[in-house]
Write a structure and sequence with these properties.
By secondary structure, this protein is of the alpha/beta class. The chain is globular. Helix content is about 30%, strand content about 25%. It is built from 5 helices and 8 strands; from the N terminus they run αββαααβββαβββ. It has one domain. Strand 7 and strand 8 (about 160-165) form a beta hairpin. A 6-stranded mixed sheet has the order 3-4-5-6-8-7, with helices on both faces. A two-stranded antiparallel sheet has the order 1-2. It starts with a helix and ends in a 7-residue tail after the last strand.
């Protein structure tokens, strides 16, 4: 399985994100997370046909993983030209608490990113980010829930909800 994953990663079909583990003393699920980088390929592999496309538009269960792949792919691209160096990770505890993407800046600060196929920002969307903030203390620079809404919200100290388009818009 590892050889196959290495091959599809080399072909830029899949991106793997290692778990964030440095200086956290908790039971973490320590496996890398793989996301299909190309949304069209992911839809084909999931068997999405033109008849299923309505499910995506209305926020069906396939939309979330596709959006997460889009976000990971976009962040990977931005890492190549960003003036601020950063690495990508994910966070998952054995209790089920997780954060989809962790951006660790070169100065050791961390930004958590949750991706939701939702036009509303709910308190439960921020739970993983709140837990990460508790675990990291001063290292936690902030957290964002990226959703399909066309507006942003302030949820709490260092926590915001933003449209996914904010990744490439000023």
């Amino acid at each position: 399985m590892t050889a196959y994953l290495d091959l599809v990663e080399t072909l830029y079909l899949v991106e793997t994100i290692p778990p964030l583990a440095n200086s956290l003393r908790t039971r973490q699920a320590g496996k890398a997370k793989a996301v299909v980088a190309d949304s069209a390929s992911a839809m084909h592999l999931a068997g999405v046909t033109s008849g299923c496309a309505t499910d995506l538009v209305t926020g069906g269960e396939l939309l979330g993983p596709l959006l997460e792949g889009l976000v990971v792919s976009e962040l990977g691209k931005q890492r190549t030209w960003s003036e601020t160096g950063f690495s990508l990770f994910h966070y998952r505890e054995t209790s089920g608490i997780e954060v989809d993407v962790i951006i660790e800046l070169d100065d050791d600060r961390v930004i958590g990113v949750e991706v939701k196929a939702s036009q509303t920002y709910r308190p439960e969307h921020f739970r993983g980010l709140q837990r990460l903030s508790e675990r990291l203390g001063d290292r936690f620079a902030g957290g964002v829930v990226l959703g399909t809404a066309d507006h942003g919200v302030q949820f709490g100290a260092n926590l915001v909800g933003l449209p996914i388009a904010s990744l490439w818009e000023l």
